[in-house]
Design a protein that fits this description.
Layout lengths: L4 H13 L3 E9 L9 H15 L3 H12 L3 E8 L2 H4 L7 H15 L3 E8 L6 H15 L4 E9 L3 E3 H17 L11 E5 L20 E8 L1 H11 L5 H30 L3 E6 L11 H7 L10 H19 L17 H9 L4 H7 L7 E7 L4 H18 L3 E8 L7 E3 L6 E3 L9 H6 L2 E2 L9
Parallel strand pairs: 1-2, 2-3, 3-4, 4-6, 7-8, 9-10
Antiparallel strand pairs: 1-7, 4-5, 5-13, 6-10, 11-12
Helix pairs in contact: 2-5, 3-9, 5-6, 6-7, 7-14, 8-9, 8-10, 9-11
Length: 453
C-alpha cells in the first residue's frame, strides 16, 4: 500500500506528543551454516557472519528514523537457536556466547537474541549441556539474551525441562547478585514460541525462516492511552474498541513503512511487523494506564482481565487491517518493571502474581519482568512457569515467564535495573510448596484438542 502525506504527518504528530516509537528493527539471521567440530570454529564462523550481515544495520535504521521523524528505540539481532549449531561441537558453549555478544557490540546493536533451545518434548545430551551453560553465558555478557521453549500445544509440557529451568534461573540470579539478579531479565521460558518475534529477551530466528530478514516491533501505549482518556467515560465499550482498532491500524502502517524501507536499503526481505503495545517506565507510556483509563481505580482490580481482552483484540484487528505481514505476538505486553503503572499497582497491592496469571490468558505473552524474593525456591519458580505454560498449551497461544528472584530482597523491597528494564517491587509468591509435583518430572501430555490432523 502507498502512504499518503497526511498519514505520515499524523504519525509524526503522534511521535512528538504521545510517545509513539518503533521499539525495534530486528535483523533475523540464520547461523545454520556456522556449525563445526569445535566451539571455537562455530564461534569464528558465527561472529564473521554477524559482523558481515549486520554491518550497516544501525546506520541504516538511524538514517531512516531521522528522515521520517520517527523514533526507533532499539536495533537488535536474532539468530538461529544456538543449541542447534553447538550440537556435536567440542568445547564450552559459553565461549560461543561471548563471541556472539562481542560481534553484537562491534556492529552497535542493543541486544542479540537466540542463545536458545527448543526442548518442548525432550532434550539431547548436547542440549542439556547447553541449558547448563545459560547462567554463566548471561552473567558474563551484556547484550546476549536467552530463551527456552519448554512446551507446545502439540507436544505438551516438558516438566523435566521446567524443573531444570527453575534451577537455571536461581543460578543466574545468584551469579548477578550485585546487580539485582539482572541476568534473569535476559532470559525467557516459552510455550508455543513464535519464530519471528522481534522483541527481547525471547527473540530467535526460527528454523523455518530464510537466510536473513528484517522484522519490526512497534510500540504505542502512549498513543492508545491518550486516545482512551480523550474518549471520555460515557463511550460504550464497542466504540472504545473501534477507537483502539483505528489507532492500531495507523501504528502498524508506520512500523511497516520503517521496516520495508530498512529491508530495501539493506537488500534483505521484509518479514513481519509485531504490533505489540510494549510499555516503558516513562510516565504515560503504560499499558496499565490504558486499562485504568477505561474506568478502573487501579490496574489489577476486578474487571481488568476483560479490559485487557478488549485491548488485545482491538490491537490485533487494527494490525490485521493495516498489513498482510503482521506476526510476532502482536497484542499487549505486561512487564511489571518496565511499566510505570504496573509498578505502582503492584506497589499498592492492586496487582498480584495471581492476577498477572489471569491476564496472560488474554494478552500477548505472560508473567514478565516480575521480581520475587531471593529466597524463592527453584521448585516454586518452576511451578510458576508450569502454570503459565499450561495456559499457553491449553489455549493454543504463546505464553512466557521472565521472573527474577532478587538475591537479598524481600516482599515490599524495590529493585532497580535501569534503562528500559526499569524498577520493580518484590512481589509475594504463594507460601505453600509445589516441590513434590515439580520433582515428579516427566511430561504433561498434549491436550486432546492437539489432535487436529
Amino acid at each position: 500500500m502507498e502512504y499518503s502525506q497526511a498519514e505520515i504527518l499524523q504519525t509524526v504528530a503522534m511521535t512528538e506528543m504521545e510517545h509513539l516509537d518503533v521499539r525495534t528493527v530486528t535483523l533475523g539471521l540464520s547461523l545454520r551454516d556456522c556449525g563445526g567440530d569445535t566451539i571455537s570454529i562455530v564461534a569464528q564462523r558465527a561472529s564473521e557472519k554477524i559482523r558481515q550481515t549486520a554491518a550497516r544495520l544501525v546506520k541504516t535504521v538511524d538514517e531512516i528514523g531521522e528522515e521520517l521523524g520517527i523514533r526507533i528505540a532499539n536495533k537488535r539481532i536474532s539468530v538461529t537457536p544456538v543449541s542447534m549449531i553447538t550440537e556435536g561441537a567440542k568445547g564450552d558453549p559459553v565461549d560461543l556466547a561471548r563471541a556472539i555478544d562481542a560481534a553484537a557490540e562491534s556492529v552497535g546493536v542493543d541486544f542479540i537474541g537466540g542463545y536458545s533451545a527448543l526442548v518442548q518434548k525432550g532434550a539431547t545430551r548436547s542440549e542439556t549441556e547447553f541449558l547448563n551453560s545459560i547462567p554463566e553465558a548471561l552473567a558474563s555478557t551484556k547484550r546476549l539474551c536467552s530463551s527456552v521453549n519448554a512446551a507446545t500445544t502439540r507436544a505438551g509440557i516438558n516438566m523435566d525441562a521446567v524443573g531444570h529451568i527453575g534451577r537455571i534461573i536461581k543460578d543466574a540470579a545468584e551469579r548477578t547478585r550485585d546487580h539485582g539478579g539482572l541476568a534473569c531479565a535476559k532470559f525467557v521460558c516459552f510455550a508455543n514460541a513464535v519464530e519471528d518475534n522481534p522483541f527481547m529477551a525471547g527473540a530467535f530466528h526460527g528454523v523455518s525462516e530464510g537466510e536473513a530478514v528484517i522484522n519490526v516491533g512497534v510500540s504505542g501505549p502512549g498513543v492508545v492511552h491518550h486516545a482512551v482518556r480523550q474518549a471520555g467515560t460515557d463511550l460504550p465499550l464497542q466504540e472504545l474498541a473501534e477507537t483502539i482498532k483505528k489507532l492500531s491500524f495507523k501504528l502498524a502502517r508506520a512500523g511497516e513503512l520503517v521496516g520495508r524501507e530498512a529491508a530495501r536499503r539493506m537488500g534483505l526481505p521484509f518479514g513481519i511487523i509485531d504490533l505489540s503495545l510494549a510499555p516503558t517506565p516513562v510516565p504515560g507510556d503504560s499499558v496499565a494506564n490504558i486499562i485504568e483509563a477505561m474506568g478502573f481505580e487501579r490496574a489489577g482490580t476486578h474487571g481488568t482481565t476483560a479490559a485487557l481482552a478488549l485491548l488485545t483484540d482491538a490491537v490485533k484487528k487494527g494490525g490485521a487491517m493495516a498489513s498482510g505481514s503482521v506476526g510476532g505476538m502482536s497484542g499487549a505486553f505486561i512487564p511489571v518493571s518496565e511499566d510505570a503503572g504496573m509498578i505502582e499497582a503492584a506497589r499498592m497491592g492492586a496487582l498480584s502474581l495471581d492476577k498477572l496469571e489471569a491476564w496472560t490468558s488474554v494478552c500477548s505473552v505472560g508473567i514478565d519482568m516480575v521480581a520475587v524474593p531471593g529466597s524463592t525456591s527453584a521448585e516454586t519458580i518452576a511451578a510458576i512457569i508450569a502454570d503459565e505454560l499450561a495456559i499457553g498449551v491449553m489455549n493454543n497461544k504463546t505464553t512466557a515467564v521472565r521472573i527474577i528472584p532478587v538475591p537479598g530482597k524481600n516482599v515490599g523491597d524495590m529493585v532497580e535495573f535501569g534503562g528500559l528494564l526499569g524498577s520493580a517491587p518484590i512481589m509475594a509468591v504463594n507460601a505453600f510448596s509445589s516441590r513434590d509435583f515439580i520433582r515428579r518430572g516427566g511430561r504433561i501430555p498434549a491436550p486432546i484438542h492437539s489432535l487436529r490432523n
